[in-house]
Write a structure and sequence with these properties.
The complex is a heterodimer. Chain A is α+β, with helices and mostly antiparallel strands. Chain A has one domain. In chain A, 52% of the residues lie in helices and 19% in strands. Chain A has a four-stranded antiparallel beta sheet, with helices on one face. Chain B is an alpha+beta fold. The longest helix of chain B has 66 residues. Chain B starts with 9 loop residues before the first helix and ends in a 5-residue tail after the last strand. The chains are: A alpha+beta, B alpha+beta. Strand 1 of chain A pairs antiparallel with strand 3 of chain B, so a sheet runs across the interface.
């Protein structure tokens, strides 16, 4: 039997423990080193990211400011454009009546003169007064107005024979109702209003120039038809 | 280096083992925390870049829309605040151009203030003033003058009209218009 050597056993045990303790301490040191490295890397990353985020946020603030500025500008421009649209709507309403005038003037036969034309905006009606060389001419004018899509009812309010200096003519008054929205696209005359010369040249007589009752228009004047002699 | 022989005892091996485990857990926790914060940083950067990109896109889009609106606005006539004075001045210019005589421009009644809204856009408060215009001139020229109201460049609406023939070629006209006047805070 081999004798037990206590001293040797102690030495072996100490060596074993030394190896293990050293190894574990090395592992601990390594882990601490790794943690420090991770911390260092994280710190560097965080610093970089913080700078990046700061820069990005600064750019974002600029972009957002530009957005707000553009939105404000757009709001102002939209308001301006809406204002123009409103002005256009008002002008359109004016244009509607101007088209009515044009449409009436465009339908005056050569042997009819208009004395007065006035509207009633509330009732959408026109009152027309004038003279015609004959009843036929007056009826032709009324028919022309009735044929127009823009006008509704055309009422003959009064018609009477008048005479001046051996010339007879028919004094008449008409009431014309305007169809809602009908004159906006009105027919022939809508565009002619813009061209001033059309208003008279198309009709052939100045529409609001009735024959002078004391001194009737000479029959030869600018398209004025011959006025019938009184019998 | 002198070493205490008791340092390398089995108890110390055991303690070193516990210390290693403790340090490992601590290191893992710290690393996880640092990793998480670093990941958060990356995520923040990505989010910020995405938001920046969206904001830039929106800004560009709005700028383009604003430029288009500006272009459209520039095509139209100069903005007008309306008003009877401005209208009277403009009308007299038009009348002079056409040789039409405007005899009177008269305010009728009291102005009516109203808030104008078009397409959900508030245009503010405007005074609506009735204005009567009387004058005379050749009918074609009067018609040409009135044709200006189709594109007046200011808020004006023709309400009613009356033409009366005279013994000459001249017609007398009597117009009723609504002229709008922007109400400023001072007024």
């Amino acid at each position: 039997m081999k004798p037990f050597n206590l001293a040797e056993a102690r030495i072996v045990e100490r060596n074993y423990c030394q190896t293990h303790v050293t190894r574990r301490l090395r592992v601990i040191a390594l882990m601490i080193l790794l943690t420090v490295m991770v911390y260092g890397a994280s710190f560097v990353c965080k610093t970089m990211f913080a700078g990046e985020v700061q820069e990005t946020k600064s750019k974002l603030a600029d972009a957002q400011e530009r957005c707000v500025e553009a939105k404000r500008e757009m709001q102002v421009l939209n308001t301006t454009l809406a204002e123009r649209k409103w002005q256009g709507q008002l002008a359109g309403e004016s244009g509607r009546w101007l088209s009515v005038i044009d449409s009436v003037v465009g339908r005056v036969p050569p042997d009819v003169w208009l004395d007065s034309v006035k509207n009633s905006a509330a009732e959408s009606t026109l009152d027309i007064a004038g003279q015609a060389s004959s009843f036929e001419a007056m009826i032709a004018f009324i028919d022309a107005l009735r044929c127009s899509e823009g006008f509704g009812e055309v009422r003959l309010e009064s018609a009477k024979i008048a005479s001046a200096v051996s010339v007879t003519y028919v004094d008449f008054t008409l009431g014309v109702s305007i169809k809602e929205g009908g004159q906006a696209n009105a027919e022939s005359g809508a565009g002619a209003m813009a061209a001033p010369s059309d208003a008279s040249s198309g009709v052939g007589v100045p529409p609001s120039s009735p024959p002078d009752r004391g001194q009737p228009e000479p029959p030869t004047r600018g398209g004025v038809p011959e006025v019938r002699e009184s019998t | 280096m002198l070493r205490n022989p008791k340092l390398y005892s089995p108890e110390n091996v055991e303690r070193a083992r516990y210390a290693q485990i403790g340090v490992a857990v601590l290191a893992a926790a710290i690393s996880a925390y640092l990793g998480f914060t670093a990941f958060s940083g990356v995520r923040d950067v990505c989010n910020a870049r995405r938001v920046l990109s969206a904001a830039r896109m929106e800004s560009g889009q709005l700028s383009r829309q604003a430029a288009a609106l500006k272009k459209e606005e520039a095509r139209q006539s100069k903005r007008s605040d309306g008003g009877v004075d401005a209208f009277a001045l403009q009308l007299s210019r038009w009348a002079n151009e056409r040789g039409v005589t405007v005899e009177a421009i008269t305010r009728q009644g009291t102005p009516v203030a109203s808030d104008i809204t078009v397409d959900n856009a508030s245009l503010g408060t405007w005074d609506a003033v009735k204005v009567r215009v009387e004058g005379r001139g050749d009918f074609p020229q009067v018609v040409a003058l009135l044709a200006k109201l189709r594109r007046p460049g200011m808020p004006v609406q023709l309400e009613s009209f009356a033409f009366q023939g005279t013994d000459t070629d001249v017609v007398r006209f009597d117009l009723m218009l609504t002229v709008y006047d922007r109400k400023t805070q001072a007024s």
